[in-house]
Amino acid sequence: MNAQQLQDIIAAGLDCTHLTVDGDGRHWSAVVVSEAFTGMRPIARHQRVYATLGQKMHTDEVHALSMKTFTPAEWAAQNH
Predict the structure, then answer these.
(1) Tell me, what DSSP letter sits at residue 37?
(2) 3-78 domain in CATH 3.30.300.90?
(3) Is pLDDT above 80 for 80?
(4) Domain spans of the chain?
């Protein structure tokens, strides 16, 4: 799996206003911005992203994924 494939999988399962994925094929990092995160605690946001990956986390296709998750408002505040 490459970064674009992983990004496409996440984007297919979660409406993102911003999404970047980087990694080495096994260890990944992502920045995910979605309105769906509004009102969610950080762990729930991560679980929501993991849910888009389904079995890929369990079959080791995606060995590790670290992520930063933001709502659009949080992202805008972060980047001003």
Answers:
(1) G
(2) yes
(3) no
(4) 3-78
